[in-house]
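Homework help board

Subject: predicted structure for assignment chain

Our instructor gave us this sequence and asked us to write out the predicted structure in token form, then describe one feature. I got the tokens but I'm not sure how to describe them. Can anyone check?
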Amino acid sequence: MQTDANVSAFEQAMVDGSCDAPSDATRDATWVDVCELDEILPSAGVACLVQGRQVALFRVGAQVFGIDNYDPFSKTNVMARGIVGCRGGKPKVASPMYKQSFCLQTGVCFDDPEVALDIHPVRVQAGRVLVRTAAMHKLRARNPELLSERRA
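My token output:
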């Protein structure tokens, strides 16, 4: 793969389609308008509140990903301040606290696959970022204690 000197390998992977966003098969989902796309800097994150839940949004190439803002290792809402990158060809964010990396597509922790963040489907329409109100609870059955800790 040939890359432009000003484009990282991770951003190029996003352009090439090797790092696709999570699919959304639900047609009747409720979407919440949260911000302008331009308010999210490329390869960076922002936090937003969606129906009382903190969501971290990340703009990577032409795609926007949404995961929980809650870091289950430090037990703080800091994921939006994490370091965006690529691991094994997949977009990821490293927690700014203890540096565990989470896949932006699945929410699974690369360093401890038993731990996963909820992912939030995101779409962009007319330059606006919309987040689906119900998170996709992937792997939550494998670690229900994380969900109960967060809600306490």
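Reply (TA_rk): Your tokens look well-formed. For the description, you could write something like this. Residues 120 and 134 are 7 Å apart (CA to CA). That's the kind of observation they're looking for.
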